[in-house]
C-alpha cells in the first residue's frame, strides 16, 4: 500500500499526486515509468514520474482523467492509500551531452517531459522546450519545466496561449530560426499523443535530426511478461515496457502503434459509463 | 520409520479392478459457462476404492516415476487405514504443494506412467494424482498444521519470484530457521499458478492458502517489487541478505515471426491468460476493470498446456467456436492428456498437422483469419518428436476474429539483464552448478523455469527444494570458514 501525501487539481481533468514510495524514489530516473493499480480489481496502468524527492522518499505524478482507471485514481485524496505502485520500470533516457536539445511535448506534455528536461540540462545541454496543448488551461505545470529550459515555446490549437497551431508548426519554425543562426538541434526528444509523435518524427527525419520518442502503448504487467505493449521498431518486435518506452523515432512503426492503441475502445467506454453511473449518477465531473 | 511398519504386503493383480475409479466432473455443456473447477475430486468412498487398487509392489516403480520421489505406496496405505493425517504428512516430506501437484502434474508421464498396474493392456494405472489431491483437499478441510520451524539462525535470505520454485524454496528456507523475504514483481503471488493456469483447473484460493501458510511461517512477502529494477542483486546483498534464490520463471512470450502478429485481436498467450486470470477480466466490467477481447471464432496456435488453457478460457469467455492449430499430431502434443481430453469434450476443434503461414487482417487491421498449410510427419527431430513437413499446395484458410499465439515461453530476462556477472546460456536460461544450483555468483542460486526453460510445476518445486538445501549448507559453512 502506498500513501498519498499530496493531491492537487491542476485543471478540471488533470491532478497531481505525490506518493510515498521510498524504494522507487531512491532510483527513479528520467524515462522510467511506474505501474499503478488503484485498488483490488483495478487495472494496472502505466504512469510517468514528473518529479521525485529522494530524501522524502516520494514520487510525484500528474495524471489526466481519460477513462475508468484514471477517474478512479482521481477520487483518492491525501492520506489515502494506493493498492499497488511498481517501478521504476522501463529503461531510463540516455542522458549525455548532446549539445542543443529540443523537447517537443504535447497533450500532458510538461509533466511527461519534465524529468527528461531536468536531467538533460544537468548533463550540460542547452534545452529548448516546445510545448503544445489544445487550450491554455491544459498547459499545466509550465513553471516547472521552464526552470530547466533555456527557452520555452508554446502553442495551442485555439491560440489562447503562445502560437496558434500544433507542435509540428512550432518545431519547424524553430528549426528554421536556428538554421538562420547557423545552428541545428543535435537531438529531439518527443513525448505525447502518438499521432503527434508520428508527425514530429516525419519532420525531424526530413531535417536529419536524431529523435527519441517516448511511446505509450497499452500495457498490462509492465515487466516484459505479456507482450501487450509490443511495438515494431526497425522491423523487429520490441516490448515497450522493458526495451523502451523510448525508441529511435525514425524506426518506430507509428501506424501500427496507433492501430493497436484503439483495440479496447468499446470496452473502455462500457467500463467508464458503468463507473460514472455507479458513483457519480452518470455525470462527469 | 514408523510408516514402514504399516505398509502392506505385495498383492495380486487378479483381486483388483482394471479400471481407475472415475472422477466426477462438471458436464462439458455446463462448465464452459463458468470458471469453476472441472473435476470435483474423490469422495472418501471413491478414494478408498481407488486406493484399494494399489498392488503395494515390492519395487514401487511409481516412486521412481515421480520427480520428487513421493513414497506413494506408503501414502496409499495410510488412506486404506483412513489415517489421512499420516498420508498427507508422507506426501509433504517431499512435496509441500500436493493440492497443486495433484491437480496439474502430468501424472501420465510420471508416477502413473511407471505404475505397474497400468503396464498391462487394458489396465489403468492407480490414480495416484487423484489420491494425492484427495489427501491435500482433506487437509484443507480438516485443518493444516503449520510446519515446524528450526531455531532462528539469524540469517536473512531473499527469494525472487513466487512461482512454485520460489514458494518451495521460501518454505524450506524458513523451516531451516532463516529469515526469508520473498520478492514478487506482480501484485499477487503464485507465478504461473495465478497468472497462467486458469481457475477452472487450479482454484486460486489454493494458491492463496499456500501464501498464507508461508506468512504464518514468518516469510515476509514483498509484492510490486521487480528485482533488477526496484532492487538489484547487489543491492540485496547490501541490504543484508546473505543468500539469494532466483525463481523468476519463463515469462517471456515466443512469437511465430509470420506476418500479421500485431494485428488487432491477436494475443500472445501470456497476455490473454494474464488478462483473464490475474486481472480477472471475466468479471469485467462489474468487478474488474481490465477488459479482454474475445470474438466468436477463436484460433489458438500451439498444443501445450498453455494452448489448451487459452482455447478453453476462450470458450468460457463466450467464443462460439474455439480452434487449436498445431503442426504435428496429438501424439506429439506437449499438453497433459487430461487437458486435451477436457478440451475435446468441451468442443474445442483440433486442426492438426496444420502449420500457420500468415495471419490475415481486414482494412481496419482486425484479425479475420489464418492462412494455413497441411503437413505430414517426417523423421523425429532433436526433440524426439516427428518433424512436420508442409505438403506442397495444400494451403487453406481458417476464419477467426481472435487469435492467440501459444507456442511457448523463454526465460524472463529482467534479472540476468540487470546482473552483469550472472552467466546465462545463449537461449537466456541461467547457468547453474547442477549439484548445488548455485549460479556464477557466489551465494546466488537459481531454479525452476528460469534455469530449465519452460517445464513443469513439480520440477520447479523440486528445484526450489534442492536449492534451499544447498543454500542452507552454504549459509552454515560460511560461518565456519569465517
Ligand atoms: C509509459 C507510459 C507512461 C504514461 N504516463 C502517463 C502520465 O504520466 N500521466 C497520464 O495521465 N497518463 C499517462 N499514460 C497514459 C495512461 O496510462 C492512460 O491514460 C491510462 O492507462 C488510461 O486508463 P483509463 O482506464 O483511465 O482509460 P481507458 O478508458 O482505459 O483508456 C483511455 C485511453 O488510454 C490508453 N490506455 C488504456 N489503457 C492503457 C494501458 N493499460 N496502458 C497504456 N495506455 C492505456 C488507450 O489509448 C485508451 O484508448 C502513460 C502511458 C504509458 C504507456
Ligand atoms: C498457461 C500455463 C499452463 C501450465 N500448465 C501446467 C500444468 O498443467 N502442469 C505443469 O506441471 N506445468 C504447467 N505449466 C508450467 C508450469 O506452470 C511452470 O513450469 C512453473 O510454474 C515454473 O515455476 P517457476 O517457479 O520456475 O516460475 P513461474 O511460475 O513462472 O514464477 C515466476 C515468478 O517470478 C516472478 N518474477 C519474474 N521476474 C521477476 C523479477 N525480476 N522480480 C521479482 N519477481 C519476478 C513472476 O512474476 C512469477 O510470479 C503451465 C504453464 C503455463 C504458462
Ligand atoms: S507429485 Fe506428481 S509425479 Fe509425484 S506422485 Fe504426485 S502427481 Fe505423481
Ligand atoms: S507401482 Fe502402482 S501398483 Fe505398484 S505400488 Fe506404485 S502405485 Fe501401487
Ligand atoms: S506490458 Fe506486458 S510485456 Fe510490456
Q: Give the number of DSSP strands of chain B.
A: 15
Structural domain count of chain B: 3
Mean pLDDT over all positions of chain A? 92
Which percent bin holds the helix content of chain B? Answer: 25-40%
**What is the distance, rounded to the nearest whole angstrom, between the alpha carbons of the first and last residues of chain A?**
27 Å
Percentage of residues in DSSP E strands of chain B: 15-25%
Please list the strands of the largest sheet of chain B in the order they lie side by side. 3-2-1-4-15
From the coordinates shown, what is the CATH architecture of the largest domain in chain B? 3-Layer(bba) Sandwich
Fold and architecture overview:
The complex is a heterodimer of chains A (285) and B (482). In chain A, helix 4 (142-146) links the parallel strand 10 (126-133) and strand 11 (151-156). Chain A has nine helices and 17 strands. Chain A has two domains: 2-89, Elongation Factor Tu (Ef-tu), domain 3 (Beta Barrel); 100-261, Rossmann fold, CATH 3.40.50.80. Chain A is of the alpha/beta class. In chain A, helix 5 runs parallel beside helix 6 (194-207) and helix 6 (194-207) packs antiparallel against helix 8 (254-261). Chain B is of the alpha/beta class. Chain B has three domains: 3-142, Alpha-helical ferredoxin (Fumarate Reductase Iron-sulfur Protein, Chain B, domain 2); 156-251 and 409-481, 3-Layer(bba) Sandwich (FAD/NAD(P)-binding domain); 255-405, FAD/NAD(P)-binding domain (3-Layer(bba) Sandwich). Chain B is built from 19 helices and 15 strands. Chain B has helices at 2-6, 28-31, 44-51, 61-65, 72-80, 84-94, 98-104, 111-114, 128-142, 164-175, 192-195, 204-216, 233-238, 269-278, 305-316, 337-345, 414-417, 449-452, 457-481; strands spanning 156-160, 179-183, 220-222, 243-246, 252-253, 266-268, 297-301, 321-325, 349-351, 354-361, 367-380, 386-399, 402-405, 409-410, 444-446. In chain B, the strands form four sheets. Chain B has a five-stranded parallel β-sheet. In chain B, strand 10 and strand 11 form a beta hairpin. In chain B, helix 5 (72-80) crosses helix 9 and helix 14 crosses helix 15. The two termini of chain B are 37 Å apart. The mean pLDDT of chain B is 93. The chains are: A alpha/beta (285), B alpha/beta (482). Chain A binds chain B through residues 23-24, 27, 37, 41-44, 68-69, 72, 83-89, 220-221, 223-228, 230, 232, 237, 242, 256, 259-260, 262-264, 267-268, 270-271, 274, and chain B through 185-187, 195, 223-226, 229-231, 251-253, 255, 261-262, 264-265, 267-268, 270-271, 274-275, 279-280, 283-291, 293, 364-365, 412-414. The complex binds flavin-adenine dinucleotide (2 copies), iron/sulfur cluster (SF4) (2 copies) and FE2/S2 (inorganic) cluster. Residues 33, 43, 45-48, 61-64, 66-70, 108, 111-112, 216-219, 245, 261, 265, 268, 272 of chain A line the site of one flavin-adenine dinucleotide (FAD).
Amino acid at each position: 500500500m502506498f500513501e498519498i501525501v499530496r493531491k492537487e487539481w491542476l485543471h478540471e481533468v488533470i491532478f497531481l499526486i505525490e506518493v510515498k514510495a521510498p524504494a522507487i524514489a531512491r532510483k527513479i530516473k528520467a524515462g522510467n515509468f511506474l505501474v499503478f493499480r488503484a485498488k483490488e480489481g483495478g487495472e494496472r496502468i502505466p504512469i510517468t514520474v514528473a518529479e521525485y524527492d529522494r530524501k522524502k522518499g516520494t514520487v510525484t505524478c500528474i495524471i489526466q482523467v481519460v477513462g475508468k482507471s484514471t477517474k478512479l485514481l482521481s477520487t483518492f485524496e491525501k492520506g489515502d492509500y494506493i493498492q499497488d505502485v511498481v517501478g521504476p520500470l522501463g529503461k531510463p533516457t540516455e542522458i549525455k551531452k548532446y549539445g542543443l536539445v529540443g523537447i517537443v511535448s504535447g497533450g500532458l506534455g510538461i509533466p511527461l517531459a519534465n524529468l527528461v528536461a531536468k536531467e538533460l540540462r544537468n548533463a550540460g545541454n542547452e534545452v529548448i522546450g516546445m510545448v503544445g496543448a489544445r487550450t491554455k488551461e491544459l498547459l499545466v505545470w509550465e513553471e516547472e519545466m521552464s526552470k530547466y529550459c533555456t527557452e520555452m515555446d508554446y502553442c495551442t490549437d485555439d491560440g489562447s496561449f503562445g502560437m496558434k497551431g500544433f507542435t509540428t508548426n512550432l518545431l519547424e519554425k524553430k528549426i528554421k530560426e536556428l538554421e538562420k543562426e547557423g545552428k541545428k538541434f543535435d537531438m529531439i526528444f518527443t513525448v505525447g499523443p502518438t499521432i503527434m509523435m508520428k508527425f514530429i518524427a516525419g519532420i525531424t527525419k526530413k531535417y536529419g535530426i536524431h529523435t527519441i520518442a517516448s511511446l505509450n502503448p497499452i500495457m498490462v504487467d509492465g515487466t516484459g511478461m505479456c507482450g501487450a505493449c509490443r511495438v515494431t521498431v526497425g522491423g523487429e518486435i520490441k516490448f515497450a515496457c522493458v526495451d523502451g518506452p523510448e525508441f529511435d523515432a525514425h524506426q518506430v512503426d507509428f501506424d501500427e502503434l496507433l492501430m493497436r492503441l484503439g483495440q479496447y475502445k468499446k470496452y473502455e467506454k462500457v467500463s467508464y459509463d458503468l463507473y460514472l453511473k455507479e458513483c457519480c449518477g452518470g455525470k462527469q465531473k | 520409520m514408523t510408516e514402514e511398519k504399516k505398509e502392506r504386503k505385495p498383492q495380486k493383480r487378479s483381486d483388483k479392478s482394471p479400471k481407475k475409479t472415475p472422477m466426477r466432473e462438471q458436464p462439458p455443456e455446463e462448465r464452459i459457462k463458468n470458471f469453476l473447477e472441472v473435476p470435483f475430486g474423490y469422495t472418501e468412498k471413491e478414494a478408498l476404492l481407488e486406493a484399494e487398487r494399489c498392488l503395494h509392489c515390492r519395487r514401487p516403480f511409481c516412486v521412481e516415476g515421480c520427480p520428487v520421489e513421493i513414497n506413494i505406496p506408503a501414502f496409499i496405505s495410510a488412506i486404506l487405514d483412513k489415517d489421512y493425517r499420516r498420508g498427507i504428512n508422507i506426501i509433504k516430506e517431499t512435496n509441500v504443494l500436493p493440492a497443486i501437484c495433484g491437480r496439474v502434474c502430468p501424472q501420465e508421464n510420471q508416477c502413473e506412467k511407471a505404475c505397474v498396474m497400468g503396464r498391462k493392456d487394458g489396465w489403468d494405472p492407480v490414480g495416484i494424482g487423484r489420491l494425492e489431491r484427495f489427501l491435500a483437499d482433506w487437509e484443507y478441510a480438516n485443518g493444516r498444521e503449520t510446519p515446524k520451524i528450526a531455531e532462528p539462525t539469524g540469517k536473512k535470505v531473499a527469494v525472487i519470484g513466487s512461482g512454485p520454485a520460489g514458494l518451495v524454496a521460501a518454505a524450506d528456507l524458513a523451516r531451516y530457521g532463516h529469515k526469508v523475504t520473498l520478492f514478487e514483481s506482480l501484485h499477487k503471488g503464485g507465478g504461473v499458478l495465478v497468472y497462467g493456469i486458469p481457475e477452472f483447473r487450479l482454484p486460486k484460493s489454493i494458491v492463496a492458502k499456500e501464501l498464507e501458510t508461508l506468512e504464518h511461517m514468518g516469510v515476509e512477502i514483498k509484492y510490486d517489487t521487480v528485482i533488477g529494477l526496484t532492487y538489484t542483486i547487489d543491492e540485496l546483498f547490501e541490504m543484508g541478505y546473505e543468500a539469494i534464490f532466483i525463481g523468476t520463471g519463463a515469462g517471456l512470450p515466443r512469437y511465430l515471426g509470420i506476418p500479421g502478429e500485431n494485428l488487432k485481436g491477436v494475443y500472445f498467450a501470456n497476455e490473454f491468460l494474464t488478462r483473464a486470470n490475474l486481472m480477472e477480466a471475466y468479471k469485467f466490467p462489474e468487478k474488474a476493470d481490465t477488459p479482454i477481447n474475445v470474438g466468436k471464432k477463436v484460433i489458438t496456435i500451439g498444443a501445450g498446456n498453455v494452448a489448451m488453457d487459452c482455447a478453453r478460457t476462450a470458450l468460457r469467455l463466450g467464443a462460439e467456436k474455439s480452434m487449436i492449430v498445431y503442426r504435428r499430431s496429438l501424439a506429439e502434443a506437449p499438453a497433459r492428456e487430461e487437458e486435451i481430453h477436457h478440451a475435446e469434450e468441451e468442443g474445442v476443434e483440433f486442426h492438426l498437422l496444420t502449420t500457420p503461414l500468415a495471419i490475415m487482417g481486414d482494412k481496419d487491421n482486425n484479425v479475420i483469419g489464418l492462412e494455413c498449410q497441411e503437413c505430414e510427419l517426417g523423421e523425429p527431430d532433436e526433440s524426439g518428436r516427428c518433424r512436420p513437413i508442409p505438403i506442397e499446395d495444400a494451403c487453406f484458410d481458417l476464419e477467426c476474429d481472435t487469435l492467440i499465439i501459444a507456442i511457448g515461453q523463454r526465460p524472463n530476462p529482467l534479472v540476468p539483464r540487470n546482473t552483469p556477472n550472472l552467466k546465462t546460456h545463449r537461449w537466456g536460461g541461467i547457468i547453474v552448478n547442477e549439484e548445488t544450483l548455485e549460479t556464477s555468483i557466489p551465494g546466488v542460486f537459481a531454479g525452476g523455469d528460469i534455469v530449465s526453460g519452460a517445464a513443469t510445476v513439480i520440477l520447479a518445486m523440486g528445484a526450489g527444494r534442492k536449492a534451499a538445501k544447498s543454500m542452507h549448507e552454504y549459509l552454515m559453512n560460511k560461518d565456519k570458514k569465517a
